[in-house]
Amino acid sequence: MNKYLLFLISFFWFHSSFSFDVADDLTLHGFFTQNAIHTSENEMYGHSKNSVSTDFTEAGLNVYYSPFEKLSFAFQVIYRNAGEVDNNKVGLDYGFIDYKIDEYESGQYGFRLGRLKNPLGLYNETRDVAFTTPSIILPQGIYYDRSRSLLRASDGAQFYFEHRYGSDDLSIKLNYGKARNDTDELLKAVIPYPTSTIPIYPRGDLEASSSSPSLLGQIIYERNAGEMIYSFSFADASLEYDPKANDVFTAGTTDFQLYILSAQYNGEKFSLTGEYLLQKNDFKDFGPFYSDNNPTSESWYIQGGYRFKPNWQVYARYDEHYLNKDDRSGKGNDAIGTPRHITFSKDIMLGIRWDINPSIMVRAEYHNLNGTSWLTSGDNPDRSETKRYWDMFALQLSLRF
Q1: Overall domain count for the chain
Q2: What gap in Å lies between CA 38 and CA 367, rounded to an integer?
């Protein structure tokens, strides 16, 4: 463990109540998370097969400034190293101006302009802050790291509405703007890699459509101060392929429409969460080597947690993911000579969490996996060499202020 990390742990250990509320109208917060991953087969966040990868680090610094009663500004800069997908990247996670049109006794409503987190499912808006997520590895069929850059944030406008009904709360968010895609991972997931029937080709770019802005939204209803949470999320986004010279694919388009149903129970010691995703995909006009097709993806999970001490929790999850719900076994891949198991994933996970103090958290997880649909191509360039059955162990240390 390096000296810098030891200093951070010592600082947060002895300053567990430390807060950077600089002034009444200015607040500064941040986080740092370091993970270690080991897999029996396949690669996850770097070289993890029969080894231990520490190439999975996230850190962020956010600022909130409210100079006037109805006007505020917020932004967060994030550092992320996640294997070959996000390799030591620093960028603006979100940054927006917030204007409250009205704030009354039971709620508020207004709009935001800038780079906005997309309100999808229960965890997408805070997926990089480990303290707010239910596990080290999120259910990948819904919080897909392969398409993280597309679904994490968008540049545009958001309308929000919040209203309280006694101990119940209703929240509505609508985002309209341009989706983001700042990695090659989604390109590798959408455009087929060379096979016996597809020749080697120069790879173009897959960018968010400028002529068809994305639309995302979410409705959340919380009962009894969050004891029960119900949510419906949706997204409609388009991507356009810009081929290179001598490319075997033409300027095709990819359209996504996804829907997520979420429900959660939070008791004194026991919690239970379930989410279901249905995603309609439409791939068209890519040329003779890529026939038009419109598969529907499906994913779901259920996770339970038990807090046996105030700062200790054990949790377990089962989740499934299918790239094409009408071909759950991947039989259609036989025709193009690729493994069936790259079209589905089934994950059994067990984990434990220890909140050392309000600023330091440690977690450990074991995953037993069948299938590789959500493995990244950055870490596994030849998906045909991946193994269907594999195990993963993960450790996490997270700090925040």
Answers
A1: 1
A2: 10
What is the C-alpha to C-alpha distance for residues 84 and 48, in angstroms, rounded to an integer? 12
CB 344 within 8 A of CB 328: yes
Residue span of the structural domain in which 270 resides: 3-400
Which of 76, 57, 63 has its CA nearest to residue 4?
57
Cα angle 369, 375, 376; round to 5: 165
Over its length of 401 residues, how does the chain's per-residue pLDDT go in tens digits? 555 555 555 555 555 545 566 667 899 999 999 999 999 999 999 999 999 999 999 999 999 999 999 999 999 999 999 998 888 899 999 999 999 999 999 999 999 999 999 999 999 999 999 999 999 999 999 998 888 888 889 999 999 999 999 999 999 999 999 988 777 788 888 887 777 677 778 888 888 877 789 999 999 999 999 999 999 999 999 999 999 888 989 999 999 999 999 999 999 999 999 999 999 999 999 998 888 999 999 999 999 999 999 999 999 999 999 999 999 999 988 887 889 999 999 999 999 999 999 999 999 999 999 999 999 988 998 888 999 999 999 999 999 99
CB proximity list for 46: less than 8 A, separation 6 or greater: 37, 53, 54, 55, 56, 83, 84, 379
- Give CA–CA dist 210/201, Å, rounded: 26
CA distance 70 to 112: 12
Distances from the Cα of 254 to the Cα of 130, 169, 209, 284, angstroms: 31, 36, 9, 7
Query: What single DSSP character describes residue 381?
Result: S
Q: By the 8 A CB rule, do 240 and 101 touch?
A: no
In the numeric block, the tokens 């993280």 are attached to 148
**Whether the predicted model's global pTM rises above the 0.85 cut:** yes
Structure tokens at 392: 């993963």
For residue 291, the domain's CATH number is: 2.40.160.10
CA distances from 340 to 97, 207, 330, 335 (A): 47, 28, 4, 10
Question: Which contiguous run of DSSP H or E holds residue 150?
Answer: helix 148-151
Residues 371/322, Cβ–Cβ less than 8 Å: no
∠ CA 208-74-138 to the nearest 5 degrees? 60
CA distance 122 to 132: 10
